[in-house]
Amino acid sequence: MKLIPIYAWNKGVHIFETKQEKFIKRPWAQGVVLLVCVVIAMLLANLPWTSEAYKEVLETTLSIKIGSFEFPHGMTVEKFINDILMVVFFFTVGLEIKREVVNGELSSRQKAVMPIIAAFGGVVVPALIYTLVNHGTDASSGWGIPTATDIAFAVGILSILGDKVPVSLKVFLTALAIADDLIAILVVALFYGGSINLVLLGIAVLLIIFVLMMNKLGEKRMIFYIVPAVAIWILFYYSGIHATMSGVVMAFLVPMTPRYTKEYYYHKRDHYRHMLAEYDSIHEEGGFPNGPQRHILRQLSKTSRNCIGMSYRLEHALGTWVNFIIMPIFALANAGVTIPSVEYFNVFNFDQALGSVSMGIFLGLLLGKPIGITLASWIAVKAKVGAMPAKASWKMLFAVACLGGIGFTMSIFVDTLSFGDHPEVAQQLRDMGKVAVLMGSLCAGILGSILVNLFHSRR
Questions:
Q1: Of 112, 245, 254, 114, which Cα lies nearest the Cα of 189?
Q2: Over the stretch 226-238, which tens digit does the pLDDT of each residue have?
Q3: Among candidate residues 412, 409, 373, the one with its CA nearest the CA of residue 394
Q4: How far does CA 213 lie from the centroid of its chain?
Q5: CB–CB of 237/203 below 8 Å?
Q6: In this prediction, what percent of the chain has a pLDDT beyond 70?
Q7: Rounded-to-integer distance, Cα 244 and Cα 371, Å
């Protein structure tokens, strides 16, 4: 692994970063990785010599058997990704939302009201468009698919556009996407679960109350949150509420306040100076670090780690894994849909194509999102409950709102949960839905980028 030196001298410390670390820190990096995985998944699903193997891998059963007991029952590779790995994704989304609500872009009425209202508009209008197009069809239950914004792709494009977009609008879209995620989570929890087992759900609620009490009593040790999190996931999985919701619930229960207070840190500061001086005086024998050095490093690490809240530590620790491992795996497993042949489309007339799930999703993302976001923002400003982002025009806000139509991650996730009432056509509808999500997101990104450049050049 080749190292690239970054000369950020700070009290004589020379920091090195690898090429991989530099790439990961780029705001567009996650979007690029996801896009590559989408292309790979599409190729695997459609190339004649890989399509069957691709499907077989996703349908491979995974389970732990002890005698006649099997756990989890009927778990395939695809379900493992969508029901277990995605729990971690939703957990990190929950941590991010909680951070923004407590002390971020959604932490005050002035900051939160505009993007939240805009997010509601960006959910309602696409859902209405989809419902109008698909009312009375087998695809009518998929109205939640075009309602979500993908933060990674949207922020990635904004970073590429640079200073053509006012900073206030970048903050606005980021906060909107966070509020949008929260609404999407509620939509999944309320409308896309299965039949509910009230007994298991009741046990899960009691366990959640127990964890909440531990939080209120000041418990800050991670083990007391990890074990209940696994139990709550199992209870959610078998109760009928989608298991990924357990990740969101636990994210809001994890404490943000650190185990050690600022006063404690300042009280120990002189002791740390003494330990560092002792560390420097230790004669290095037996390799670096030797026993006494390791002891000092452990003490320093324990204190510094516990001066940061558990929520922040988990968000930082999981961020790279989610963005560059879990999300690419999700894309590889869910973006690989078989593209129908020309003969397949010939069996439909124009009216049927217009009323298909694809048209509802495509129009919802490409038109519904920007119209809903812009209209809701205009109403908020006119009603004087929200303020226009600084140095932003309505034209530029509409252009940025078009980027809100990039709905990759959450839209595909909702698509995998939709159309359960029609098992005979569900898979076809889901495949058509995924293609529509990809095409709608692509066109929304292109349209938003073109409009940003156009409106910026006319200033």
A1: 245
A2: 899 989 988 888 8
A3: 373
A4: 28
A5: no
A6: 79
A7: 30
